[in-house]
Amino acid sequence: MRPFLIFGFSIFFVYGLSACSDSAPSSSMVQFLVTNKSTKKINRLTIFLEEKDTTKTRLVDSVFITNIPDNLPIRLTYDINKNSSTGNYKLVALGTVKKWNIDFGKFSEKTDTDSDHLYNLEILEDSVSVIP
């Protein structure tokens, strides 16, 4: 009886582990960690996915958040598997008296140029820095 219970538990354990691996791979999620290090309040932060050519810029998609706290990293995520374009990311932060924007990173269809799919950005008084 004991070997039967051990065998049954082993099968159940292996099935449980395989069920956990059915989720989407984390490599499809691009993460943007943004910290407001300026003294200005930021009301809205948006990360745009843009496709550019010589004559125009086309918005592919975006993720946003409102009311950014000071010195607290905010995580925005984007599922790159939803994408079918080639372009770059653009951060636009709107404050009460100031606007910040920067182009950073590139994507091509369902791939991202950053190997770990993580962008760490700091909003400073007069600029935005991308931290490697």
Features:
132 residues, Immunoglobulin-like, five-stranded antiparallel β-sheet, four-stranded mixed β-sheet, 1 helix, 9 strands, signal
Please characterize this protein's 3D structure.
This protein has 132 residues and is mainly beta. It has 1 helix and 9 strands. Helix content is 14%, strand content 52%.
Annotated CATH homologous superfamily: Domain of unknown function DUF5300
**Low-confidence runs of at least 5 consecutive residues:** 12-25
Quickly give the structural class: mainly beta
Strand order of the largest sheet: 3-2-5-6-7
CATH class: Mainly Beta
Estimated share of beta-strand residues: over 45%
Question: Total strand count, please?
Answer: 9
For the sheet with most strands, the description reads: 5 strands, antiparallel
Kindly summarize this structure in a few lines:
With 132 residues, the protein is mainly beta. It is 14% helix and 52% strand. It has one helix spanning 2-20, and strands at residues 29-36, 42-52, 57-68, 74-79, 86-95, 99-108, 111-112, 118-123, 128-131.
Question: How would the blueprint of this fold be written?
Answer:
Layout: H1 2-20, E1 29-36, E2 42-52, E3 57-68, E4 74-79, E5 86-95, E6 99-108, E7 111-112, E8 118-123, E9 128-131
Parallel strand pairs: 1-8
Antiparallel strand pairs: 1-4, 2-3, 2-5, 5-6, 6-7, 8-9
Keywords: Signal
Signal peptide: 1-19
